[in-house]
Design a protein that fits this description.
This protein is an alpha+beta fold. Helices cover about 55% and strands about 15% of the residues. Strands 1-2-3 form a 3-stranded antiparallel β-sheet, with no helix packed on it. The radius of gyration is 34 Å and the shape is rod-shaped.
């Protein structure tokens, strides 16, 4: 292609013109230097007489790209673990919380406006119901978030 007048850029993984050199990075996971090659036509008086090739050490960029890919994979795995945890935790909290909320509401109805009960007791039962409802709302929100992230919210 270069002899046809086109400048060609090649990266190590895409070209067979590897010059076996040691990696420039001492901690490189590669056995050989990663290289980029640019082959450009050499024109003399408008006629292509040959090519000029330059080889660039791209080991550092390759190492960084691999590290970024590993970091991305680790982050995606961590997000999946987090989402699974939230979903499981929300489901596990929902069962006892539903029982607690039901019993607190039943106690509140059973006590009603009994004038013989101290006001403090009535307030305490009311707070218990409110807080159980608040927790129930939080658990529902956790379940909704996990469903949205899993793509299952209807």
């Amino acid at each position: 292609r270069a002899l046809a007048g086109e400048t060609v850029d090649l990266q190590q993984r895409r070209h067979p013109y590897l010059i076996p050199l040691p990696p420039s990075e001492p901690r490189s996971p590669f056995a050989q230097m990663q290289q980029g090659v640019r082959i450009a036509p050499l024109a003399i008086e408008g006629t292509i007489a040959g090519t000029i090739s330059t080889i660039t050490d791209t080991t550092e960029q390759a190492v960084e790209a691999e590290a970024a890919q590993r970091a991305r994979a680790t982050a995606e795995e961590a997000l999946q673990v987090r989402d699974s945890f939230f979903s499981l935790a929300a489901h596990e909290l929902r069962t006892p919380l539903t029982t607690l909320l039901g019993r607190a509401q039943m106690l509140q109805r059973w006590l009603g406006d009994d004038a013989q009960l101290p006001e403090r007791t009535q307030r305490s039962v009311g707070i218990m119901v409110e807080q159980a409802q608040r927790l129930n709302g939080m658990v529902s929100a956790m379940l909704d978030v996990s469903r949205v992230q899993a793509g299952r919210l209807a």
